[in-house]
Amino acid sequence: MLGGSKDGAPREPPTFIEMARQFVVGMLVMDTYLYFLHRYMHHNKFLYKHLHSRHHRLFVPYAFGAIYSHPLEGFLFDTVGGTLAFVISGMSPRTSIFFFSFGTIKAVDDHCAMVLPGNPLHIFFRNNAAYHDIHHQLHGGKYNFSQPFFVMWDKICGTYMAYSLQKRAEGGFEVIPSSKEWKED
After folding, report:
1. Alpha helices of the chain — where are they, by DSSP H?
2. How far apart are CA 31 and CA 13, in angstroms?
3. Which end of the chain is more exposed for a tag (fewer CB within 10 A), N or C?
4. In which family does this protein belong, per the annotation (predicted)?
5. Under a CB-based contact definition with an 8 Å cutoff, are residues 57 and 48 in contact?
Protein backbone atom coordinates (compact mmCIF):
# COMPACT_ATOMS: atom_id res chain seq x y z
CA MET A 1 0.00 0.00 0.00
CA LEU A 2 2.78 2.45 0.80
CA GLY A 3 4.93 1.32 -2.09
CA GLY A 4 8.44 0.11 -1.76
CA SER A 5 11.78 1.80 -1.54
CA LYS A 6 14.49 1.23 -4.13
CA ASP A 7 15.71 -1.83 -2.25
CA GLY A 8 12.19 -3.30 -2.19
CA ALA A 9 11.57 -2.72 1.52
CA PRO A 10 8.20 -1.18 2.41
CA ARG A 11 8.30 2.56 3.07
CA GLU A 12 7.33 4.00 6.40
CA PRO A 13 4.41 6.41 6.25
CA PRO A 14 5.54 10.04 6.33
CA THR A 15 5.46 11.90 9.61
CA PHE A 16 3.09 14.82 10.03
CA ILE A 17 6.01 17.24 9.54
CA GLU A 18 7.07 15.48 6.33
CA MET A 19 3.49 15.55 5.03
CA ALA A 20 3.18 19.26 5.86
CA ARG A 21 6.45 20.04 4.05
CA GLN A 22 5.39 18.01 1.01
CA PHE A 23 1.99 19.74 1.05
CA VAL A 24 3.44 23.27 1.21
CA VAL A 25 6.09 22.59 -1.44
CA GLY A 26 3.40 21.02 -3.64
CA MET A 27 1.21 24.11 -3.19
CA LEU A 28 4.07 26.43 -4.17
CA VAL A 29 5.01 24.33 -7.21
CA MET A 30 1.42 24.10 -8.39
CA ASP A 31 0.81 27.82 -7.88
CA THR A 32 3.96 28.74 -9.79
CA TYR A 33 3.21 26.45 -12.73
CA LEU A 34 -0.48 27.37 -12.93
CA TYR A 35 0.10 31.13 -12.63
CA PHE A 36 2.49 31.28 -15.57
CA LEU A 37 0.55 28.81 -17.73
CA HIS A 38 -2.76 30.54 -16.97
CA ARG A 39 -1.32 33.98 -17.74
CA TYR A 40 0.26 32.68 -20.95
CA MET A 41 -3.08 31.21 -22.06
CA HIS A 42 -4.59 34.68 -21.74
CA HIS A 43 -1.78 36.39 -23.66
CA ASN A 44 -1.47 33.85 -26.46
CA LYS A 45 -4.45 34.52 -28.73
CA PHE A 46 -4.38 31.04 -30.28
CA LEU A 47 -4.34 29.22 -26.93
CA TYR A 48 -6.98 31.51 -25.48
CA LYS A 49 -9.31 31.14 -28.46
CA HIS A 50 -8.95 27.37 -28.84
CA LEU A 51 -8.44 26.24 -25.24
CA HIS A 52 -8.96 28.66 -22.37
CA SER A 53 -11.90 30.69 -23.71
CA ARG A 54 -14.21 27.74 -22.98
CA HIS A 55 -13.55 28.20 -19.26
CA HIS A 56 -14.18 31.96 -19.55
CA ARG A 57 -17.60 31.54 -21.08
CA LEU A 58 -18.53 31.51 -17.41
CA PHE A 59 -18.78 35.23 -16.59
CA VAL A 60 -20.36 34.29 -13.30
CA PRO A 61 -18.47 31.26 -12.05
CA TYR A 62 -20.28 28.34 -10.51
CA ALA A 63 -18.72 25.61 -8.39
CA PHE A 64 -18.04 22.94 -10.97
CA GLY A 65 -17.03 25.57 -13.52
CA ALA A 66 -13.59 24.99 -12.01
CA ILE A 67 -13.31 21.92 -14.22
CA TYR A 68 -15.23 23.32 -17.20
CA SER A 69 -12.40 23.43 -19.71
CA HIS A 70 -11.08 22.03 -22.97
CA PRO A 71 -9.67 18.50 -22.45
CA LEU A 72 -6.16 19.58 -23.49
CA GLU A 73 -6.30 22.51 -21.09
CA GLY A 74 -7.43 20.15 -18.34
CA PHE A 75 -4.46 17.93 -19.10
CA LEU A 76 -1.99 20.85 -19.08
CA PHE A 77 -3.38 22.44 -15.93
CA ASP A 78 -4.43 19.50 -13.81
CA THR A 79 -2.40 16.50 -14.94
CA VAL A 80 0.90 18.21 -15.72
CA GLY A 81 0.55 20.69 -12.82
CA GLY A 82 -0.35 17.92 -10.41
CA THR A 83 2.49 15.70 -11.62
CA LEU A 84 5.01 18.50 -11.17
CA ALA A 85 3.73 19.21 -7.66
CA PHE A 86 3.85 15.50 -6.79
CA VAL A 87 7.34 14.85 -8.18
CA ILE A 88 9.12 18.07 -7.12
CA SER A 89 7.72 17.99 -3.58
CA GLY A 90 8.64 14.32 -3.15
CA MET A 91 5.04 13.77 -2.10
CA SER A 92 4.16 10.38 -0.70
CA PRO A 93 1.08 8.60 -2.05
CA ARG A 94 -0.63 9.24 1.29
CA THR A 95 0.09 12.97 1.16
CA SER A 96 -1.07 13.11 -2.46
CA ILE A 97 -4.52 11.85 -1.47
CA PHE A 98 -4.92 14.78 0.92
CA PHE A 99 -3.23 17.26 -1.41
CA PHE A 100 -5.28 16.53 -4.53
CA SER A 101 -8.54 16.25 -2.58
CA PHE A 102 -7.84 19.60 -0.95
CA GLY A 103 -6.85 21.15 -4.30
CA THR A 104 -10.12 20.01 -5.87
CA ILE A 105 -12.19 21.34 -2.98
CA LYS A 106 -10.28 24.65 -3.16
CA ALA A 107 -10.78 25.00 -6.94
CA VAL A 108 -14.51 24.28 -6.64
CA ASP A 109 -14.82 26.78 -3.77
CA ASP A 110 -12.90 29.44 -5.76
CA HIS A 111 -15.42 29.14 -8.59
CA CYS A 112 -18.58 28.96 -6.48
CA ALA A 113 -19.19 32.76 -6.68
CA MET A 114 -20.22 32.80 -3.03
CA VAL A 115 -18.52 34.59 -0.18
CA LEU A 116 -19.71 32.98 3.01
CA PRO A 117 -18.77 34.41 6.40
CA GLY A 118 -16.59 32.01 8.35
CA ASN A 119 -15.53 29.93 5.32
CA PRO A 120 -12.12 28.64 6.44
CA LEU A 121 -10.81 28.63 2.87
CA HIS A 122 -11.57 32.37 2.62
CA ILE A 123 -9.99 33.03 6.01
CA PHE A 124 -6.71 31.23 5.31
CA PHE A 125 -6.33 31.97 1.58
CA ARG A 126 -6.58 35.40 -0.07
CA ASN A 127 -7.11 33.53 -3.34
CA ASN A 128 -10.77 32.75 -2.88
CA ALA A 129 -14.13 32.98 -4.64
CA ALA A 130 -14.21 36.82 -4.56
CA TYR A 131 -10.61 37.07 -5.77
CA HIS A 132 -11.19 34.69 -8.66
CA ASP A 133 -14.53 36.31 -9.49
CA ILE A 134 -12.60 39.47 -10.47
CA HIS A 135 -10.66 37.37 -13.00
CA HIS A 136 -13.91 36.10 -14.55
CA GLN A 137 -15.52 39.54 -14.85
CA LEU A 138 -15.62 41.21 -18.25
CA HIS A 139 -12.26 43.02 -18.02
CA GLY A 140 -10.73 40.62 -15.51
CA GLY A 141 -8.67 38.62 -18.00
CA LYS A 142 -5.71 40.89 -17.24
CA TYR A 143 -5.77 40.32 -13.49
CA ASN A 144 -5.75 37.71 -10.75
CA PHE A 145 -4.27 34.75 -12.63
CA SER A 146 -3.08 33.04 -9.44
CA GLN A 147 -4.68 29.75 -8.56
CA PRO A 148 -5.46 27.76 -6.55
CA PHE A 149 -3.77 28.71 -3.27
CA PHE A 150 -1.80 31.96 -2.98
CA VAL A 151 -1.79 35.40 -4.62
CA MET A 152 1.99 35.92 -4.49
CA TRP A 153 2.63 35.67 -8.24
CA ASP A 154 -0.04 38.26 -9.03
CA LYS A 155 1.55 40.62 -6.52
CA ILE A 156 5.12 39.95 -7.74
CA CYS A 157 4.20 40.23 -11.45
CA GLY A 158 1.87 43.23 -11.18
CA THR A 159 -1.36 41.45 -12.09
CA TYR A 160 -2.95 41.69 -8.64
CA MET A 161 -6.35 43.42 -8.52
CA ALA A 162 -7.64 44.14 -5.04
CA TYR A 163 -11.38 44.18 -4.43
CA SER A 164 -13.99 45.09 -1.90
CA LEU A 165 -17.24 43.43 -1.04
CA GLN A 166 -20.35 45.61 -1.11
CA LYS A 167 -23.60 44.52 0.42
CA ARG A 168 -26.37 44.27 -2.16
CA ALA A 169 -29.89 45.53 -1.49
CA GLU A 170 -31.23 42.21 -2.82
CA GLY A 171 -29.04 40.34 -0.34
CA GLY A 172 -25.57 38.92 -0.49
CA PHE A 173 -22.42 40.72 -1.59
CA GLU A 174 -21.05 42.06 -4.86
CA VAL A 175 -17.34 41.91 -5.65
CA ILE A 176 -16.09 45.35 -6.72
CA PRO A 177 -12.58 45.87 -8.16
CA SER A 178 -10.63 48.45 -6.15
CA SER A 179 -8.73 50.07 -9.01
CA LYS A 180 -9.38 53.20 -11.08
CA GLU A 181 -7.59 51.43 -13.95
CA TRP A 182 -10.44 48.89 -14.03
CA LYS A 183 -12.97 51.64 -14.76
CA GLU A 184 -10.80 52.99 -17.60
CA ASP A 185 -10.52 49.62 -19.39
Report:
1. 16-43, 45-50, 71-74, 81-89, 93-110, 120-124, 129-136, 152-157, 180-184
2. 26
3. N
4. Belongs to the sterol desaturase family.
5. no
